[in-house]
Amino acid sequence: MAVRIAVQPSRIRTWFILAAALVTFIGHEVARAKTVSATEVPRRILVLFGDAPSRTGRPPIFPVDSLVSTVLQAHLEWMGYETDYFEASGQVPPEPAQNVRAVIIDGSLHVATSQEDALISWLAAQKRRGLPVLLLGGIPVASAQATERFLAEFGIGGGGGAEHHLASVSLAVGDESVVSRETELKPRSTGFLNLLAPAGGKALVSVFGVDTTGGKHRFDAVFTAPWGMAWLAPYVMLEVGANRRYYYLDPFRMIETWLGGEAFPAPDTTTHHGRRIFFSHIDGDGFASRSKTSGGKICAEVMRDRVLKAHDLPVTVSVIEAEVCGLTQSLSPGDRPRYEEIARSIFTLPNVSAASHSFSHPFQWDPADPNPGRYEAGSLALNDDADYKSVSIEREVRGSVDYIDRTLLPAGKKVEIMLWSGNCRPGTEALRLVRELGVENMNGGDTVMSRLYPSLSAVAPRLVPWGDELQIYAANQNEFMYTSGMSGPFSSGFANVVDTFESTGAPRRLKPVNLYYHFYSAASFSALRALEKALDWCEKQPLHGITAAEYARIVRDAHSAQVHRIAQGEWRLLSHGDLRTWRLPASAGVPDIARSRSIAGYKTEGDVTYVHTNGGRDATLVVAPPHQPVAAHLRLQEAGVPVLFVDHRPRRVSFIVGGNRTGQLVIAGAPPGAACQLTRTDTPGAKPATHVADANGCVALTVPSGMEAEFVVTRDVAVVRSQESNAVASP
After folding, report:
1. Between these two residues, 397 and 729, which has the higher pLDDT value?
2. Rounded to whole angstroms, how far apart are CA atoms 554 and 579?
3. Which of 212, 184, 80 is nearest to 581 (CA)?
4. 238 partner at 20 to 30 Å CA-CA among 348, 349, 440, 492?
5. Upstream peptide bond of 234 is cis (omega within 30 degrees of 0)
6. pTM for the whole thing?
């Protein structure tokens, strides 16, 4: 797949795409010529979920409402695993593929009585196969006969009965390293089951109870087993509100305990070219609302002048068609020409990419959704000129995208992404239509982790499936969530989004920096100032800016990417080319660029190493063990702009700079203090600029978009001609 760089002059785009295509083609040819024996690293986690309608009388649930989606998916993703969901309440799961690493029985899974024996037989087969199983929340069978068989098959003692008459309870922890510090782990009499860890396992959390007659009982609520692990309610999370939870146990340590600490390159969606990703997007709400910050201007004008023009950062802007056309009840169709002209003036800005926020801003997208939320109306209230009686997915998606493309965008720009509105639960039909249009999708996901809410539970997954389609979540939430529905205060509300950026950046980089807001943030001075403070922080950080659509493609690519182990310390990395960063523990060793293929470079930060590919679909990464010397080789350490290496040699690299702005890149791998030359190859007669590598062998360069250049190490030790000059002698 060609590398896509949004919002750039056509010549730069053409050169960048052609070069990327050439690199990809060469990579395929090299891979075809080099026959390797590689085994795919199994990193798929099969999640069995569902609640049989025949048992409950309720509609079937979706993966978004599963316990795994809430508790574990985000952390599994960070560790390099991807979740695949199967609705197993009324059907036997298929035989797992070879790339499946483990199976999770979700706490939501309650199968029909007629299916209980079949599910137990299937699970027993996976146990014999050696696939680790995790019971998350509870056991999936309810009848007495099936429960007895299930416990016997998995060696769980105690009979599984509930104990309701406990006079006292106490708690013992078998491994303090798995305990979270988010909330205190306390014994509870509710949810007490007579269950004992199997032989060969270890109880991590045990609750002891004494009933009113003096009888003693034990509930091993969390335990390891020869076949995997159980992490049972009520010791998964403490629920303190509708949207606030705290872990009793550290999810990362729990996953490591369950699956082990195997090190392999993990697809990383937080980093690009060695820098943390930045992207921003604006939902269209409030486009035509009056702003109190400037007499007579609407929010869209203030946002254009105070934010979009004033800050040289990429931003994806969406509009609601009905609002721009003056079709909502608070607006007049007579103002449509003015609103459309303002929208056009926004979309012509070079740092702006285009998105749709639907036609009428539906609050509930999928009529079949059993958990759509409560709203007073199906969409924004429209006036009679709209002639729109009920929500149509076709009109909301295809209609709005066509309108924006045809009416508001300059030549060379198209709608790149659909930003979901309302409950942000689009369902299968809307997602399928967006995909068929060749447009990405985003929104949903409640990432709001901060010092005020210091819980890993406030970090959402990257995506969620609906049938065969994928919804891409925003990497962070918007100002509506930080300010209690825009009721304020803003100084201690959305301005604290920076706290979330910092909390999700260390000690683990869990998310990119995603500044997500609405046009109505320009409605008041306090809301606008909070946004500007967040923008000021972003501009001071060493980030790599991309569009929301680019981020969505990276997430989608990470979900399907493959890692193949060729040998110890050697992997083949397969993707569609949008994903360009893979993460390894720094303790795994140093990437050997000379022996790798299509690896542009790497950067080590703390205890992790971010490895960046050159944008091809097929790369080979060779990592030398710690303390083993590797051959000297130039490499890309980091860049704030898109960079493509078209020729990559130990002492010479040729590259093209993409994007639409000037930025910095750092080339590493030169001898410390070496003399280097940078020559523009896209400018006839250009004179080389001289540079001296620092003590770490790095050279920082400031490069404009569209630049084609060659960087060469000319002498291992620079010769300084005078104290006033940094000129380098000719070799």
Report:
1. 397
2. 5
3. 80
4. 492
5. yes
6. 0.93
d(C-alpha 385, C-alpha 399), whole Å: 16
pLDDT at 32 over 70: no
Provide the H-helix boundaries in 444-510.
Answer: 479-482, 497-503
Do residues 315 and 283 lie in contact, with contact meaning Cβ atoms separated by under 8 Å? no
Q: Quick one: pLDDT at residue 635?
A: 98
Q: What is the mean pLDDT of residues 76-84?
A: 98
CB < 8 Å & 24+ apart, contacts of 562-565: 562/40, 562/41, 562/99, 563/40, 563/41, 563/43, 563/80, 563/264, 563/265, 564/38, 564/39, 564/40, 564/41, 565/38, 565/39, 565/40, 565/41, 565/264
pLDDT for position 305: 97
Q: Give the pLDDT score at 57.
A: 66
pLDDT tens digit sequence for 292-309 = 998 889 999 999 999 999
Exposed/middle/buried for residue 174 (C-beta within 10 Å: 0-12, 13-18, 19+): middle
Q: Which helix (H) or strand (E) holds 218?
A: strand 216-225
485 domain-assigned: no
Cα four-point dihedral sign 667, 671, 677, 681:
negative
Contact yes or no for 581/271 (Cβ under 8 A): yes
Sign of CA dihedral 420, 426, 429, 431: positive
Indicate which CATH number applies to the domain containing 110.
3.40.50
301 and 364 in a single domain? The answer is yes
Q: For residue 85, what are the β-bridge partners?
A: 47
Q: pLDDT of 149-182, one tens digit each?
A: 999 999 999 999 999 889 999 999 999 999 999 9
The whole domain housing 191 covers: 41-259
Q: What is the number of domains present in the chain?
A: 3
